[in-house]
């Protein structure tokens, strides 16, 4: 198997030029796949990769299945064309990892057959990461039975990108589809493959612009009934953020005012006494109250609580105050008001 790498430039609509790398080498594939992964990580708006596949010709006797021949990837103004049928196992493993393991979103036109061909190569792109443009846009409308007709790449590109793509399929001879195994590809086949991938990418760039700004909420990128406006979830989040900001500002103002009052009080306590005022600075409230109470007790003749316990009682005072030393005769017997307990003759 001969290894090769070609770097070409082709002109697309509006006179734009795209850079095309055509290869089957492992090192070159690894280099450009890493570049695409880095572009994808840095991209903020158009976070997807254009994808297109070419197969070997079908067997007219339907005895043999056609298989994957060429893989095309596109981002920005760059296209990577991998001649898959002429690559080794390491190069196929790199592509398998790029498709399955890195969470990259791909966009293509009509992925039905592409899914089958990749499945035969043990490559399965998650359905959530693979966008079929034919399922999003219908230019032809409905047929006689009322079913939506699937549009080809040429009709979609003509309606969405540029009218110059109306002849993109007619300019490529039908018999040239039988030469995707040819090594290396002819200039006509290489240009056709590169433009297919580039158009797949540019189609979804236009569609995603419409979805992002006219259909989807710009905050969460989810569809909302009010097209082009913020959905209710993002609106509630914005209101909550504004309230939190106002509350934070009010709390900061309150803390600043409290700090200023504390600083003023500390400054008044640290200030030296004036020369014309010999009185010392007043102590804190609790200490001042204690000092006032002690001063009042010293200046008044009121009995102290401690004097009651220090006082020596006399025998008479102790006798009169002690209920246990009082004779029973001195005590008045309680009057019995119950007539049933009164003995006869006692009244």
Automatic annotation (TrEMBL):
The entry's keywords: Coiled coil, Hydrolase, Nuclease
InterPro entries registered for this protein in UniProt: 3'-5'_exonuclease_dom, 3-5_Exonuclease_domain, RNaseH-like_sf, RNaseH_sf
Record's GO cellular component terms: cytoplasm; nucleus
Biased composition (Basic and acidic residues): 307-330
Domain of life: Eukaryota
A matching Pfam family: DNA_pol_A_exo1
Residues in coiled coil: 234-265
Domain 3'-5' exonuclease: 38-208
Gene3D superfamilies documented for this protein: Ribonuclease H-like superfamily/Ribonuclease H
Ranges for region Disordered: 268-347
Biological process terms in GO annotation: nucleobase-containing compound metabolic process
Keyword Mitochondrion: no
Keyword DNA-binding: no
One Gene Ontology term of the molecular function aspect: nucleic acid binding
Protein's name in the database: 3'-5' exonuclease domain-containing protein
